[in-house]
């Protein structure tokens, strides 16, 4: 999973789990804040990453989402249950899973076989 996609997935998952709005997510792997804005609801996602000028949008039913990364022209499937999430990145043909706990988001990237850490 590419760094920009991982950041957007972590951001959307955190918004869905916490039901809170925030303007950025901090990537510990990249040692930087990613400024992201937009709408995340139980049925619709439409966000913009100001650092990379990328749109990420889609729809869902509260638990399962079909998302589209406009810059990479690729789909991402995202499932959320409680504080946990998982899904599939069609661009890299890889699975991911994660958890939102307090202000921390952990995303396990199966493509690179390691955890990515974020803070909200």
Question: Would you write up a description of this structure?
Answer:
There is one protein chain. This protein has 120 residues and is mainly beta. It has one domain. The chain contains one helix and ten strands. A hairpin with a 4-residue loop joins strand 7 and strand 8. The two termini are 20 Å apart. The mean pLDDT is 97.
In short:
The protein has 120 residues and is mainly beta. The chain has one helix at 3-18; strands spanning 24-27, 32-40, 44-49, 54-60, 64-69, 74-81, 84-89, 94-101, 104-109, 114-119. It is globular and about 30 Å long.
Q: What is the strand and helix layout of this fold?
A:
Layout: H1 3-18, E1 24-27, E2 32-40, E3 44-49, E4 54-60, E5 64-69, E6 74-81, E7 84-89, E8 94-101, E9 104-109, E10 114-119
Antiparallel strand pairs: 1-2, 1-10, 2-3, 3-4, 4-5, 5-6, 6-7, 7-8, 8-9, 9-10
Proportion in β-strands: over 45%
Total beta strand runs: 10
Inertia-based shape:
globular
Unreliable stretches covering 5 or more consecutive residues? none
- Report mean pLDDT, rounded to a whole number: 97
Helical percent range?
10-25%
Biggest pleated sheet:
10 strands, antiparallel, barrel
The radius of gyration over CA amounts to: 12 Å
- Strand order in the largest sheet: 1-2-3-4-5-6-7-8-9-10
What is the domain tally? 1
Per DSSP, the total helix count is 1
Structural class: mainly beta
Distance between the termini: 20 Å
What letter string, H or E per element, gives the SSE order? HEEEEEEEEEE
């Amino acid at each position: 999973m590419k760094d920009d996609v991982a950041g957007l997935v972590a951001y959307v998952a955190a918004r869905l789990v916490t039901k809170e709005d925030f303007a950025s997510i901090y990537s510990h792997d990249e040692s930087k804040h990613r400024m992201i804005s937009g709408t995340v609801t139980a049925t619709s996602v439409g966000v913009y990453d100001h650092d990379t000028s990328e749109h990420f949008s889609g729809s869902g039913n509260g638990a399962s989402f079909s998302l589209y990364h406009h810059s990479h022209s690729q789909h991402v499937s995202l499932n959320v249950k409680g504080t946990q999430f998982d899904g599939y990145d069609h661009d890299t043909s890889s699975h991911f899973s994660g958890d939102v706990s307090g202000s921390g988001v952990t995303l396990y990237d199966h493509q690179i076989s390691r955890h990515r850490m974020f803070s909200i």
